[in-house]
């Protein structure tokens, strides 16, 4: 609408009849026809007044009108207050001039140029033009509203698409939560098995320590066996020497034999004790082997659990990757929706400004109409009086 108001008044004015101030009222009356509402009274190129048909006929229709104005020049009845504008004046500037004018100029604007009177522009024509402009502006606003509706529809679709993606994302999040929970449970089971392995290893260490202690106990026994064997050899040697020396007088052989027998018994006892310790050691070794075997089984079970964790986390990473791609799509959709919403917001603000300006101009036009109507009614009342 602002562009239309920048048009010049010369584009909308109409031609008018120009008469001299000395023409009689009766002659002036005959110059009016259906298309002529106003006569311009001018001296040369300079207008000095206007003669409006409606006002002139109203004055002549009074009781004393024909007697008062008969054979009188039109300068006696013309309206001397005029609104003169240059042909380069815009419609917007004209509205400002009308608003600032407090006198009655007969609802007719004289458009002037460098040659004199270019034409006239009535307020009725001006208001009809402004009404047309209002209709065009309303059509434009309807077009803008339709465009906004289309944009809102697109935004609604984008939001719906975003909502669908977000629902899918939520479902994926639930799956990830379940997978993560399964991984956590698997980790707990793994920790339990690891604790069992630690206990088995500790048990093995304890059994190894026992074996070491038993081996330490075996060492003195072996030394004693060696000592007894040495003494037995010495006694046997001595017995042989005595036997050779005594001949038939070997009474002492009985003592030697007894000593050898005692040593033999001690050796036997030591051997039995060694066998007992060896048997105990063998049992502990077997137990250790069993525990190690059990530990190996526990390690294998832990390995299986670790593989299960690896599978779970592989799935988790795959889901995370998929979710990342979907989130990228959601982010793009949100960005597009944000751009459209920003455009829509700016468009709605522009439309709001246009509607506000349009309302202000409507009130402005109505005010101008009312002011001119009141001025015209006041002038007619004064003339009638």
UniProtKB/TrEMBL annotation:
Record domain Methyl-accepting transducer: where: 136-352
Full protein name: CBS domain-containing protein
Annotated GO biological process: signal transduction
Query: Which Gene Ontology terms of cellular component type are present?
Result: membrane
Key word Zinc present: no
Q: Which organism is it from?
A: Anoxynatronum buryatiense
Keywords for this protein: Transducer
Task: Please name the SUPFAM superfamilies in this protein's record.
Answer: CBS-domain pair (SSF54631), Methyl-accepting chemotaxis protein (MCP) signaling domain (SSF58104)
């Amino acid at each position: 609408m602002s562009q239309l108001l920048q048009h010049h008044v010369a584009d909308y004015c109409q031609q008018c009849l120009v008469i001299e101030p000395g023409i009689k009222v009766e002659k002036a009356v005959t110059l009016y026809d259906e298309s002529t509402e106003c006569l311009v009274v001018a001296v040369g190129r300079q207008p000095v007044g206007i003669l409006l048909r409606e006002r002139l006929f109203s004055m002549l229709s009074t009781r004393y009108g024909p007697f008062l104005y008969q054979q009188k020049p039109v300068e006696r009845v013309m309206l001397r207050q005029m609104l003169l504008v240059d042909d380069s004046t815009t419609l917007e500037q004209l509205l400002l001039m009308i608003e600032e004018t407090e006198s009655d100029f007969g609802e007719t604007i004289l458009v002037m140029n460098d040659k004199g009177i270019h034409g006239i522009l009535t307020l009725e024509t001006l208001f009809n033009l402004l009404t047309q402009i209002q209709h065009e502006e309303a059509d434009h606003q309807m077009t803008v509203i339709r465009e906004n509706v289309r944009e809102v529809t697109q935004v609604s679709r984008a939001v719906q698409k975003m909502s669908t993606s977000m629902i899918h994302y939520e479902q994926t999040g639930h799956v990830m939560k379940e997978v993560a929970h399964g991984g956590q449970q698997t980790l707990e089971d793994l920790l339990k098995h690891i604790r069992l392995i630690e206990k088995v290893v500790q048990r093995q260490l304890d059994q190894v320590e026992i074996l070491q202690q038993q081996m330490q106990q075996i060492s003195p026994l072996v030394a004693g066996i060696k000592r007894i064997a040495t003494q037995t050899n010495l006694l046997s040697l001595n017995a042989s020497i005595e036997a050779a020396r005594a001949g038939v007088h070997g009474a002492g052989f009985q003592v030697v034999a007894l000593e050898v027998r005692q040593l033999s018994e001690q050796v036997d006892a030591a051997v039995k004790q060694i066998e007992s310790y060896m048997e105990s050691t063998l049992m502990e070794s077997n137990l250790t082997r069993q525990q190690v075997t059990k530990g190996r089984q526990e390690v294998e079970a832990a390995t299986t659990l670790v593989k299960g964790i690896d599978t779970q986390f592989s799935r988790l990473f795959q889901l995370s990757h998929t979710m990342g791609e979907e989130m990228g799509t959601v982010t793009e959709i949100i960005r597009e929706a944000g751009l459209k919403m920003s455009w829509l917001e700016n468009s709605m603000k522009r439309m709001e400004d246009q509607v506000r300006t349009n309302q202000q101009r409507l009130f402005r036009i109505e005010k101008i109409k009312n002011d001119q109507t009141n001025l015209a009614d006041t002038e007619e009342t004064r003339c009638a009086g």
